[in-house]
Amino acid sequence: MTALPRVLDLFSCAGGAAMGYYRAGFLVDGCDIADRPRYPFAYHRGDALDYLAHLITTGDIERYSLVHASPPCQAGCALTVGTNASQGWGGTHVDLVAPTRALLDATGLPYVLEQPNGRADIRKDLSLCGEMFGLGVLRHRNFELGRWATAQPAHPRHRGYVRGHRHGVHRTGPYVAAYGNGGGKATVPEMQTAMCITWTDDREELTEAIPPAYTRWIGHAFLTARQEVFA
Question: What domain of life does the native source organism fall in (predicted)?
């Protein structure tokens, strides 16, 4: 029997990305610095980069076929940058993209490095949107692919606006705003339904989550690419 591929899910939060890989046929191990009791798979609590460095040093990284990393994104997120500029806040946020990439390169493994739209310094090898999967959120996310590649899927036209208030204007639309509070933002049940996430009802975890449909697609694409290499 062929062993199932295993993915290491770094900066895992509550497991939106992890569930997608699981549904694509992977075994999943997560790591996050915060306590994540709702994470649905094997889980290590600790600093993700320290843990990855430990796995590289010990050779335990060789258990994995793929590494996925979603480092903190507030420094480059378009939503945060735009809000700070409009409000004159200009807060300082951590940016772990470069050190994360350096360690991902050191693993010698294929990897996926995820960030939202904005100023984050990653290659946009893939850009995914909820409309590609018929979801109730747009939630654009960009993915840098290391040591493997796949084609960018077509980005369908959005069916309308995101529901809620934006710059003093209220709009209705087929998508909910799965971030923040007030201004017509989505309720917890609305976010769960829109992203197909049922295992957590924590608002903070839902606002940070990648819809599992994204990484299910990525997982299938990776497995297809790997089969083609060894065919």
Answer: Bacteria
Give the bridge partners for 157, in sequence order: none
The C-alpha atoms of residue 222 and residue 219 are separated, in whole angstroms, by: 5
Could you give the dihedral angle defined by the CA atoms of residues 179, 155, 111 and 180, in that order, rounded to the nearest 10 degrees? 0
65 contacts: CB under 8 Å, gap ≥ 6: 5, 6, 7, 26, 109, 110, 226
Segment 52-109, tens digit of pLDDT: 999 999 999 999 999 999 999 765 444 444 333 333 433 445 789 999 999 999 999 9
The answer to whether the beta carbons of residues 69 and 10 sit under 8 Å apart is yes
Q: Which two tokens stand for residue 115?
A: 């960030």
Tokens 């959005």 correspond to 158
Please give the span between the terminal C-alpha atoms of the chain, in angstroms, as a whole number: 18
